[in-house]
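Final report, results section. Input specification for complex C-07:
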Amino acid sequence: MRGFLYVISALAVVALAFWAYQQNYATQQALREVRGLQNDIATQRSRLAVLRAEWAYLNRPDRLRDLAEINFDRLGLLPLMPEQFGLVDQVAYPPEPLLPITDPVETRAGPDTDDEEVQLP
Amino acid sequence: MIRTPLRPLARVLKARQTGENPDAIERENIRLRHEEMRDKARLRAQGRLLVLSVFFLGAFMTVGARMGHLAASEPMEPQARASGSQILAQRADIVDRNGRILATNLETHALYAQPPIMIDKEKAARELAVIFPDLDEKELLEDFTGKRKFLWIKKKLSPEQKQAVHDIGDPGLLFGTREMRLYPNGHLAAHILGGASFGREGVHSAEVIGVAGVESRFDEFLRDPVNEGAPLQLSIDMTVQAAAERVLYGGMKLLNAKGAASVLMDVHTGEIISMVSLPDFDPNIRPRPPTEGEPGDSPLFNRAVQGLYELGSTFKIFTSAQALELGLVNAETMIDTKGPMVVGRHRIRDFRNYGPELSVTNVIVKSSNIGTAHMALDIGAKRQKEFLDSLGFFKPTEVELTEAPGAQPLFPKQWKDISTMTISYGHGISSSPLHLAAGYASLLNGGTKVTPTLLKRVTPQNGPRIVSEETSRISANMLRQVVTKGTASFGEVPGYHVGGKTGTADKPLTNGRGYYDDKVISTFASVFPAHDPKYVLIVTLDEPTETSGPKPRRTAGWTAVPVASEMTRRMAPLLGLRPEIAPAAPAKVTLTSN
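Structure output:
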């Protein structure tokens, strides 16, 4: 009985050691991945910062003004002026759609048309 | 264990035979046994003490070693933490009120040389001089061949320049990473942003420090890693600022002015929406402070904050408001305007003769110095001083700029009656356009004090009360009449109900004795919409001349007012104000006796 217990505990120690080593290597692997990812994130962030700076630079008011002037023929952009504010009641209502004709009335064509004459009863 | 008997029979018998006391044997044996036990116990105790001391020694050694390790090792970022809390940049961005970038960082490189490991020094010097035209080949070669082991060549490189230096291929030319401050909008809001430069420099990084404006004032905030890169949000609106700079620059050139300044302020929150000072500079290449000439003429000088000028008749509204507040007059009280008014050896004149008397409203509308002086005399020096103090005219403004505390307004040390009179119409007291903006905002927002600020805020300031709401309303109405029928008739912008007061002051001679005849500071302080004030706009032109007429005209009505009016026309729509028809005064029931 005692010998059996010794064998069991020895096996348990081996198994636990195996598990512990495995966890250790898995952790190291995860840390390596995290480091790589963080490097990637840092690179992407600095890239984002550069792109933001470039976006701000391309959208600087001086440049936009010059572009609006150069492309005035096509775009016709002007500075915002008080006259450009409108009131809601200045906007025309869309024309109402024609009502559907539910009871068509037949009329006799006039004499100036080329229609065939209809003999009325 | 074999115990020795205490009374061994053999010895006892022997002792009995010899007639000795056998008890002595027992006592002797007990004594021996006790000695043995004592020795054993001591040994055990000593052993325990040894173990304990070894344990403590081990524990202290561990703690000591750990402390030493912590003290000596390089700090390391925790790797297993989730990302997001890393320090992203050395310095936080600065953005406008809508989150558009005013200042940000860009990674770049600095170029340095280590002459001992350079291979072909002549070639390196020659090619560097080609890449950077501002470097001198001879000087470079001298540096390379001299005793120096290390030298900086360029602080900031563009990627193209870096590649070109790479292509020289000399191992002694090395790069260090740098973070540089970038102002993508160039000149825009230059005086507010200030600028930045490098502080302590190392090979791998350099400190970026603010040198002026908000960059310097908020230096610690911008560099504090605790904020995790949160940007500094200003109250400036980039679009409005751009429009203001454009129009003001045009006005300055048209009117041949030397300089110009404008301040647009929200009357309730105290936020500065736009602040312009011309001429300006590019904060990316901030010029050095001038060593000669007037510091006030340098582009670095912020006229809106640092410039102290006599702002002239714009002060009259403060006098009339105080007289109204004290109950000395009402808007229709007639004031004596017979001129010239002689006080001691001084004579106070009006621009024109306005007849024997005018109502208070018309004193403001026609801008009568004599009428204002009469009101000021009724108020008295002490009360006038207190009132101007409550509006902040005796202290530097508290706006968040490094330059602000240096702009201490100038006013007479001894406040005589003649000072009371001249100051009532804005002469003899020098303050900045920003002071005037804060004063107008405090007077017209319903009568509570506002402090100008450059940081975005949402709620009104609700400062201490300065004048009653009624006085505030009447003052705004008077200012409106200045535009509709007074000196600022060019100031009308259809739909925005501009009210305002002009001010033209002769510039003092540089030697301090008297004034120039042909150099003025013309100011227009305006508020819109006058029936429900929202914004205050101050425009100041330095030495303007309007030359369309037969004689050059310099009064503010011909110079500052048209510029301010065009600025209002451009900026008000950008601020989201819709042009409207002024509401008519509500019909009132007049109480009469029955």
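The helical segments of chain A are 2-58, 61-70, 72-75. Chain A has a mean pLDDT of 86. This concludes the modelling results for the funded period.
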